[in-house]
Amino acid sequence: MSQDPKVLVVGAGGREHAIVRALLRSATLTAADGGAAAQIHATPGNPGIADDVSVHDVAVDDVAGLVTLARELAVELVAVGPEVPLVAGLVDALADAGIAAFGPSAAAARLEGSKAFAKEIMIAAGVPTAGYETVTTVEAGMSAITGYPVVLKYDGLAAGKGVVIAEDEQTARATLVDMLEDHQFGDAAVVVEQFLRGEEVSLLAVCDGERAIPLAPAQDYKRIFDGDEGPNTGGMGSYSPVVGIDAERVAEISAQVHQPIVDELNRRGIPFHGVLYAGLMIDGDDVRVLEYNTRFGDPETQAVLPRLRSDLYDLMVRSATVGGLAGVTLEWDDRWAVTLVLASAGYPASASKGDVISGLDAVAEATEVTHAGTARDADGRIVTAGGRVLNVTALGATPADARDAVYAATEAVTFDGRQLRTDIALRPVERFSTAT
Ligand code: AMP
Ligand code: GLY
To answer: Quick one: which of 204, 201, 247 has its CA closest to 220?
Structure first.
């Protein structure tokens, strides 16, 4: 490692703010001249990230601009947050410029970019998943359906909006028409998938092209309203770890859902580096993969990284090198983390912008507030600027302690139309008390 480790974080959301916070705790970066904050850059960032480290104004989809920025800053590593630059080939372009990156190549990011490719790899790797058929016409889609509900997945990046669970024939047909005929992006395809029941768990692993090291498990809450009602969002809250999935079970599941994918991609000459995120449906002993993402989850990261005791910078640098993670074991804080998302009025259909946020200074020290959709207005006030606005994370000895702390801290933070779920992490609170 060079004398002056420097990292550029790409992204503008709560996930990237949580990554910046974890990098600020890195022993490697802290030991550098000037301390950790001087070693960390972010682009484009947000007002919360800008309070912590230097930010730049290159957008996440400007691959050439990002390479130029990384070169100018002479960073040792670029840590890529969102999927868009991954699928666009940022990591490949950085490799051509001789700059290491935390994240997969475009070829490996197809696991997230194409649902059909992901399914094909899962089958080849022997990973348990839901039965499916890939179709390109409405009629083929209708005849692939064997019962309701059925899951219809658009075969491309759709910012979390490409999955429809159709309860009846009419909805299924309308969805297929919408996905295959109304917005034709080149050769559109849809994955028609068996509906699975159970409990969703996000299990992420850091990969070095050869091996996958699992992170602590988490759960997120995708629907906008309490009781998992209403439309899907990017995620309204999360917590970690998960009751019933201890370290041993994590290792078992990871061996079923991460390592075979890394091995299969390797056989095809596509080493996987960065985070492999398995979205799981768990029903007793039955574990199946719903989807892969090729990056940290948002808002899972906001709950998982505050519990990571190991040096995130070191982990990221190792992940960029083939075999770099050999011998690494991760250390975790035993406490529970709960993350609550505060969303703006109108989300997820729209997002209210410019609502002034107050109370940020009053949030307890022990709480971690990360910014997502915020901006500074002409008067320097922090205002809403997106759907998911802020994340509040607290740690506690029990799920109840963490949950109580997060809701208490959040009372102070207000803005017009603020939306939040009141049932985040109720599940582990109930189970933890009955399990012990
Ligand atoms: P995906 O983007 O594939 O994770 O799908 C988004 C959400 O749709 C998931 O988080 C699940 O809640 C739901 N979902 C996806 N596939 C299935 C399935 N086969 N059975 C039941 N629910 C599913
Ligand atoms: N929390 C779901 C995701 O990051 O895709």
So the answer is: 201
